[in-house]
Amino acid sequence: IGAAKLVVVVAIFLLTFYVISQVFEIKMDANLGHIFARSALDAAARSTKPPRYKCGISKACPEKHFAFKMASGAANVVGPKICVEDNILMSGVKNNVGRGINVALVNGKTGEPLDTKFFDMWGGDVAPFIEFLKSIQDGTIVLMATYDDGATKLNEDARKLIAELGSTSITNLGFRDNWVFCGGKGIKTKSPFEQHIKNNKDTNKYEGWPEVVEMEGCIPQKQD
């Protein structure tokens, strides 16, 4: 409403100025007039533009929380994307994603990125993934997203370590399922941040893969 009033006021002002200039034969610099009108209208447009929050999430996070947004891969074509505090940690554009499970680690106190890696769970070996999971320090935020297939090589040891980070879906993660998860090392409860869609030929969006899963939220900052 305020923006609409501003536009009307600007329009009336310009019209009044034009009429006065015609009556008194005042020559107004056309360029100056155009610039003034344009800047006033641009200001009105900016006042109606919705605010942008970190990572493009739908609402601002409260104090002492980190904003995050993530998406799984799309079939075997488009890689996953992980953003925390307006930092794109992993994406196809950054060229640091790959088939399997993509993992980003973030400092739970500062929100600073620590590491990014992907582990091929179709043609790779699960052992390096297990070693990586064991090496994560307490207080670390852990974000995971599948791409193509993230489950074939997963064994019970790997699934148990991911469950200890707060995941409930990892025990049921199957061939070509889409899954995104945000948990933490040393978490005492199950994480509320998890989305999982089963690979089902009757409901798949793509021929051999389900639709992309997306998730956003606010991660509580680790307190001392």
UniProtKB/TrEMBL annotation:
One cellular component (GO) term of this entry: extracellular region
Compartments where found: Secreted
UniProt key word Nucleotidyltransferase: no
Family of this protein: Belongs to the FAM3 family.
Keywords recorded for this protein, A-Z: Disulfide bond, Lectin, Secreted, Signal
Stretches assigned to the ILEI/PANDER domain: 99-186
Source organism (scientific name): Bucorvus abyssinicus
Chain coiled-coil ranges: none
Protein's name according to its UniProt entry: FAM3C protein
Predominant subcellular localization, coarse grouping: secreted
Presence of keyword Transferase: no
Spans traversing the lipid bilayer: none
Molecular function (Gene Ontology), one example: carbohydrate binding
